[in-house]
Amino acid sequence: MTTSAELYERACRHIPGGVNSPVRAFKGMSQPPVFIERAEGAYLFDVEGKRYIDYVGSWGPMITGHADPDVLGAVRERLDSGLSFGTPTAIETTMADLICEIIPSIDMVRMVNSGTEATMSAIRLARGYTGRDKIVKFEGNYHGHSDSLLVKAGSGALTHGEPSSPGVPASLAEHTITLSYNDIEAVHECFEAMGEQIACIIVEPVAGNMNCIPPQPGFLEALREVCDSHGSVLIFDEVMTGFRVALGGAQAHYGVIPDLTCLGKIVGGGMPVGAFGGKRDIMEQISPLGPVYQAGTLSGNPLAMAAGITLLEKVCQPGFHEALSTRVETLCDGLETRAHEAGIALMTQRAGGMFGLFFTAQQRVDNFGQTMACDAQAFRDFFSHMLESGVYLAPSAFEAGFMSSAHTHDHIQTTLMASERAFAAMRQQ
Ligand code: PMP
């Protein structure tokens, strides 16, 4: 049997850090990354045959569980027709119609191949539309790895200690203004000082890349207001929250409507897909209708569309998101209770089908500074104990957790029992 440790050693020879995306590397953890062979429902199975209850869900897409038979069936059905044509296909229109129906703020949508492409293109569009260069983002929000957005970023950039990456020209980064999440005052001050130069605000409407931080009441509304009064474009990066926090995303949940929305993860059903869309007059600036260029050889790929459409149709089922939130509540309440019984300071935050675990005595965590102040070593210890017990959490204190509809009451109870052992072991350390 080949072990994960052996595969990792081999991977490191020809792949930087042995991984194709940094957060997979288990940075700071006591064990090497687990190599997964297959997955089904709520479970991952590693190359050594060990089974894990998975709360990562491929970082979001697997909202109905892994290897969903309907999604796989849809892909299989299209497979024999060919992988890619580089021409328009009917299925792309089906996807566009479905997205516009589920998210009413989207009049027109363009498909791309990743969340990074979606946000990068939305930023370019906002700049092209307004004729302005500056953009506003929030510290610890992650919008993919394009140059303008890799400034004080979250997710792997944060886990690996490089929130502002070398290689991003200072002359470009200077156009990215970074403010503190949930700080309405800072947003007002910034717009008073230079509002007429700001093309857009891009925000994770629930921050999921510095753990899980929901917006404080009034925060998203304030962003909408300053954008309206200064002619700037409001972009919600719903790559993570779209179809997860609620069917219509965070914008439906919080009732604040952006001008542009970025999508990813669930919209591709596990295939490499992203999308950006929004108001018609802005989207009409995109080539070939308008002058803002954006393109993609494989964009709207038929297999990816088949997977994504099938998954979207499944999450449209009545009661889907209510049931998902209930599962999150059960898990998070159960973890908090068991931690407190063991004398461990744990606080959880939730938004629909996503959640965050904070090892802290604070009642709330609202921004990057507060998330950084939590006990990262306690998280690492918890992660290791849970992994040992067959529960796979995101290998970083800065990532949100994801629930799926394949997680049953039994999976959650098994997870909670594992947490009891973990908390007991942590107390003895
Ligand atoms: N935006 C957000 C909010 C994300 O969470 C991510 C990825 N986790 C991205 C953008 C980038 O997406 P991708 O990794 O598909 O490029």
TrEMBL record:
Designated gene of the protein: hemL
Reaction catalysis annotation: (S)-4-amino-5-oxopentanoate = 5-aminolevulinate
Assembly and interaction partners: Homodimer.
Any one of the GO BP annotations: protoporphyrinogen IX biosynthetic process
GO terms for MF: glutamate-1-semialdehyde 2,1-aminomutase activity; pyridoxal phosphate binding; transaminase activity
Gene Ontology CC, one term: cytoplasm
Superkingdom, taxonomy of origin: Bacteria
Location of this chain's protein in the cell: Cytoplasm
Annotated source species: Salinicola corii
Protein name according to UniProt: Glutamate-1-semialdehyde 2,1-aminomutase
Cofactor requirements of the protein: pyridoxal 5'-phosphate
Enzyme nomenclature, EC number: 5.4.3.8
Family, similarity comment: Belongs to the class-III pyridoxal-phosphate-dependent aminotransferase family. HemL subfamily.
Short name of any one Pfam family annotated for the protein: Aminotran_3
Modification N6-(pyridoxal phosphate)lysine occurs at: 265
Keywords: Cytoplasm, Isomerase, Porphyrin biosynthesis, Pyridoxal phosphate
Pathway: Porphyrin-containing compound metabolism; protoporphyrin-IX biosynthesis; 5-aminolevulinate from L-glutamyl-tRNA(Glu): step 2/2
